[in-house]
Amino acid sequence: QVQLVESGGGLVQPGGSLLLSCAASGSIVGIDSMAWFRQVPGNQRELVARFSSDGLRDYADFAKGRFTFFRDSAKRTVNLQMSGLTPEDTAVYYCQSVIGGRMYWGQGTQVTVSS
Question: What distance in Å separates the CA atoms of residue 61 and residue 48, rounded to the nearest whole number?
């Protein structure tokens, strides 16, 4: 079985930065895609960034120029480096992966941007 565990969330002041990590464990074969989503209570979950099937990185408009999505193969993690954070970035951030035709989600990590 595959498990995804997010970490790195917390409370940060506006303009600050956070590094989110998603650690994958289990049988990792046939990875079709990986992505970060976020969700504000009462709202639908929205895409933040993802690795497309051709290996390119796609970002939501609000993330372009501020967020960087990258992999650390040695640690078997995918990461989201966020900078220039605003209160509008407050949400629970989720790691998602499609592996062997199955979709997996982490439990999420809370990001709160507030002074």
Answer: 9
Q: Are 36 and 69 in contact (CB under 8 A)?
A: yes
* CB neighbourhood size of 85 (10 A): 21
100 SS3 class? coil
- pLDDT tens-digit map of 62-72: 999 999 999 88
The neighbour count for residue 106, using CB atoms within 10 Å, is 20
Which two tokens mark 76?
Answer: 């078997």
> How many whole angstroms from its chain centre is CA 30?
20
Q: How confident is the model at residue 53 (pLDDT cuts 50, 70, 90)?
A: low
Report which of 6, 3, 29 is spatially closest to residue 95, judged by C-alpha positions.
6
Rounded CA separation 13/86 (Å): 8
**Can you read off the two tokens belonging to residue 82?**
């966020």
